[in-house]
């Protein structure tokens, strides 16, 4: 793999930078529930939730999750369906499944104590380089880099680094940079300070340079090109996949749902059946459902289209409403539940949008 290197400019005063950043952070940090203490379990859960998710969205989820599973042991002993239900609406559900798997291992191997050893923590499912650095530095005060998009944006401007942050090798570069300039006295506040600066001041499009506490250290500000950094190549356009979503009701007024496979996208979540439109038209869909599930159905109306944007694909689902005409449901193929019972089943965001249409 091609290596990228960067040398800290001689004129950059890392000691003064650390002082100014830490002073600002201590006086301006947001009061967030996971900052109430340095409990590694709480910090771990918060960092998993914060992956690809905004802070304001995470706060209520974090609070209810901690209320329901206040200790690692209680989370490890929980049923996966209940854990997924607690995560419902937060998206990226593999995070919840991986966390659940990992806490079970912590209970079994480490007596329910989050390991502070880098090698041990790294082995746990769902712990990537960023989460590893965040937990080690924030919870245990280890001088480890925790490099996310905020940190790369801030440091690309401060140190005038013009490498493409969309490339994996560039993240490695920033990790090496952080290792060189991190505070060994307070690595927890240093890493959080960089993240906080990116969230509150050093915004992607309109950085508030005039109020920035480390403005005098910023080489991009000195050059006047802070809005041109960081360099990031555009992602490929997301593929759009079109589906039919089947809301099927029986003569008892119950709705048909099924559990997704235990591997792959949205694993173990529940759903109204969906099928790719390129595979069936609506008439073929009726025949397919009878063969697949043993039920004869009658489509009586088409509803709205719902849409959900995943990181790699966009799903557009045309909702169609149908009733059961006859037949006998195959064993093991889904179940009929009332609207009230539906609330007990963890459903992904796209399915939540469908469910809202039938209330």
UniProtKB/TrEMBL annotation:
The keyword Electron transport does not apply. Binds 1 [4Fe-4S] cluster. The keyword Isomerase does not apply. Residues 49-200 form the HhH-GPD domain. Keywords: 4Fe-4S, DNA damage, DNA repair, DNA-binding, Glycosidase, Hydrolase, Iron, Iron-sulfur, Metal-binding. Its cofactor is [4Fe-4S] cluster. Its EC number is 3.2.2.31. It is an enzyme of class 3 (hydrolase). GO terms for biological process: base-excision repair; mismatch repair. GO terms for molecular function: 4 iron, 4 sulfur cluster binding; 8-oxo-7,8-dihydroguanine DNA N-glycosylase activity; adenine/guanine mispair binding; metal ion binding; oxidized purine DNA binding; purine-specific mismatch base pair DNA N-glycosylase activity. It catalyses: Hydrolyzes free adenine bases from 7,8-dihydro-8-oxoguanine:adenine mismatched double-stranded DNA, leaving an apurinic site. PANTHER family: ADENINE DNA GLYCOSYLASE (PTHR42944:SF1). Adenine glycosylase active on G-A mispairs. Base excision repair (BER) glycosylase that initiates repair of A:oxoG to C:G by removing the inappropriately paired adenine base from the DNA backbone, generating an abasic site product. 8-oxoguanine (oxoG) is a genotoxic DNA lesion resulting from oxidation of guanine; this residue is misread by replicative DNA polymerases, that insert adenine instead of cytosine opposite the oxidized damaged base. Shows a powerful dicrimination of A versus C, since it does not cleave cytosine in oxoG:C pairs. Belongs to the Nth/MutY family. This is Adenine DNA glycosylase. It comes from Tenuibacillus multivorans.
């Amino acid at each position: 793999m091609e290596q990228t290197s960067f040398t800290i400019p001689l004129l950059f005063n890392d000691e003064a930078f650390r002082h100014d950043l830490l002073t600002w952070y201590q006086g301006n940090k947001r009061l967030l529930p996971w900052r109430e203490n340095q409990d590694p379990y709480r910090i771990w859960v918060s960092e998993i939730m914060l992956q690809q998710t905004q802070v304001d969205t995470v706060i209520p989820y974090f609070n209810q999750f901690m209320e329901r599973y206040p200790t690692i042991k209680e989370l490890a002993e929980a049923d996966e369906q209940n854990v997924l239900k607690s995560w419902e609406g937060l998206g990226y559900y593999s995070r919840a499944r991986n966390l659940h798997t990992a806490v079970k291992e912590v209970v079994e191997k480490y007596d329910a104590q989050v390991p502070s050893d880098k090698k041990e923590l790294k082995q746990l499912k769902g712990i990537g380089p960023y989460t590893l650095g965040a937990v080690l530095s924030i919870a245990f005060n280890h001088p480890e880099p925790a490099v996310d998009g905020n940190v790369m944006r801030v440091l690309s401007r401060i140190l005038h680094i013009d490498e493409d942050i969309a490339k994996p090798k560039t993240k490695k570069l920033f990790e090496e940079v952080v290792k060189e300039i991190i505070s060994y006295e307070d690595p927890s506040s240093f890493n959080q300070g960089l993240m906080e600066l990116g969230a509150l001041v050093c915004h992607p499009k309109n950085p508030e340079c005039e109020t920035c506490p480390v403005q005098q250290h910023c080489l991009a500000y000195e050059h006047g090109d802070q809005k041109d950094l960081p360099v990031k190549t555009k992602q490929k356009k997301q593929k759009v996949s079109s589906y039919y979503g089947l809301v099927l009701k029986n003569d008892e007024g119950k709705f048909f749902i099924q559990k997704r496979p235990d591997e792959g996208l949205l694993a173990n979540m529940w759903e109204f059946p969906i099928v790719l439109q390129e595979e069936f038209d609506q008439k073929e869909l009726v025949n397919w459902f009878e063969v697949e599930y043993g039920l004869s159905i009658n489509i009586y109306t088409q509803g709205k289209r719902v849409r959900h944007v995943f990181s790699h694909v966009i799903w557009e689902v045309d909702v169609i409403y149908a009733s059961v005409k006859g037949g006998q449901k195959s064993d093991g193929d889904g179940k009929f539940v009332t609207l009230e019972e539906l609330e007990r089943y963890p459903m992904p965001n796209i399915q939540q949008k469908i469910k809202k249409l039938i209330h």
